[in-house]
Amino acid sequence: MSESPSPADSESKKSSRAGRNLPAAIAVGLSLIAMIIAALFIVKTAFAFVVMIALTIAVFELANAMRAANITLPAIPVAVGGVAAMLVTYFISANHALVALALTVIAVFLYRLRGGADGFVKDVTAGIFSLGYLFVMGSVVMMMLSVDDGHWRVLTFIGVTVASDVGGYAAGVFLGKHPLAPNISPKKSWEGLGGSITASILVGLLFTIYGLGADWWVGLILGFFAAIAGTLGDLSESLIKRDLGIKDMGNLLPGHGGIMDRLDSLIVVAPVAFIIMYLLI
Length: 281
Hints:
With 281 residues, the protein is an all-alpha fold. Helix content is 78%, strand content 3%. It has helices at residues 7-18, 22-42, 44-66, 75-91, 94-113, 120-146, 150-175, 190-210, 216-244, 259-280; strands at 179-181, 185-189. A two-stranded antiparallel sheet has the order 1-2. A hairpin with a 3-residue loop joins β1 (179-181) and β2. The longest helix has 29 residues, at 216-244. The radius of gyration is 20 Å and the shape is globular.
């Protein structure tokens, strides 16, 4: 006589198939979406500060993760300088933000000087890498947000990225059979990529037509390239975590991991979405 599985066993199977705590992931995801929409459409500037806070948390998550590889990321000057560059981008101009970013690179050098020669190159490199990986991309989001219809542009960019993640996740779980990049992320599949592209295009069509008043083909182009860029961002972060020997960047968001684990696709999609909307809308 076989024993019926316990609730814990069922939960374990559900989590192992999905790769995460699905109920917690859905609850956290919906809460984040509600917060983003409220910030964008009630006080647009509030969303700018939400992004700055998220990226500041992310750089400290990245610094903590890099300690596993004996890398000391100068998180304080990167966070201060990166936020300053985003503020300048949003309130003044992107041209002036270049100066803030350049000064941040100098600040990273100065901050790390006190640590001596041992590990100087890898620590400074990690600082400049995180500045570009997080805050240069964040400054692109500020450029999108600062125009008159910026709230719709940012919501469209986030919408196609989230759709890509959800579509890829669902298609991968239920249909995935052919690995996309087994040496990087074993759970990624070609079927998942197809789901990402399909879902991202559908949301791109919806948002560009009804939110931005653009032609339908703009949504098709945006959705397709957002899905490709989002997958690249996800794979890139998988390689970072594999190189550092960690599973998640943090544990701040139940069912998702850390802030960095939610930003991996968004930060790569941001410049792609910006240039498509800038040129075509």
